Amino acid sequence: METNKQSSYWIGSVRIGGQAYPRFMGGPLDGFTDAPFRQLVRQFSPQALLYTEMRHVSCVAHDAGGKKSLNFLQQERPLQYQITASSLVDIERAVARILAVGVDGIDLNIACPARNVVKSRSGSAVMADMPLLKEILTVLRDLVKLPLTVKMRAGFKEKNALDVVRLVTDCGVDALAIHPRLQTEGFAGTPDWDLVAAVKKTTPIPVLYSGGIIDFASAQAVYERTGVDGFLIGRGMQGAPWKLAALQAAARGEPYIVSSQTICAVALEHLALMCHYYGDDGLYNFRKFIPFYVKDGDGASALRQRLMVCESVAGVREGLRAFLKEV
Fold first, then answer.
1. Considering only CA atoms, which of 243, 308, 314 is closest in space to residue 275?
2. pLDDT mean values, one per 10 residues, the chain (327 residues)
3. What is each CA distance from 309 to 107, 176, 273, in whole angstroms?
4. Which of 78, 263, 286, 326 has its CA 20 to 30 A from that of 38?
5. Whole-structure pTM value
6. 153 and 111 Cβ atoms separated by less than 8 Å
């Protein structure tokens, strides 16, 4: 049975740099939680903190006109802009450009396990270079007067999360998020909840949990074992921009039903937003979302296969409308 303390926790908020946010936040997921998707999330969760996809500081610093790295709308805020770095080069210029556009904070990613990111000595590779991490955080803290956060892992090749957390805290970071697996584990293996609990006891700053939260029950299980302050939802949001709202409703003990009409409207708007944002590549970029919308119905498999190769926006639109209305 849930205690009164637990009940008050779920309806409470987490404070990051003086700002209060609901405990469920939209985490960064490259290729999925882009600007069009965040705009959909905003329709369901106007107050939740969202994270941008990760961008290397050099990409931001040298992006002509900011068309690739800074192309987002102010309606997506509150927004934490996520960067990664492999040296101090370009940090100052990148931060200046980000702040000039308007965000609510900056997040340093030292968690990404992707091979190409690690090869560039950024992402999770930075966890293995504590002197470099200290230099990067010192510079960022001097430049960023908004909330500064860090997303980390259990470690790179070996677990050193507790040492990293002490350094992060000493450098004046406002909050951290931890995915409790090593870089070598990727997104497989058993997450180390005991490590997260130890991290929570090590630092006074808010600790967010990242990795495998797909419903309220999984969030409850993590909280009971770790006592974390909030949750970053990434993969659990794929194709479900209402997920944060559904989790908040469950936390209040309220049902949350997404009608077939809503799903249909969201899918069609998602397609339109992708085409507007990516231009000629919009349909191609939308294809990865089709399996999330076209499922659990007669003919779903055949329709998915057809829509995944359809070259016509109108054809995809009509296929989605007919299937989702029927479902």
1. 314
2. 70 94 95 96 97 97 90 96 98 97 98 93 96 98 98 96 98 98 87 97 98 94 97 93 96 92 93 96 96 86 93 95 79
3. 37, 41, 19
4. 326
5. 0.94
6. yes
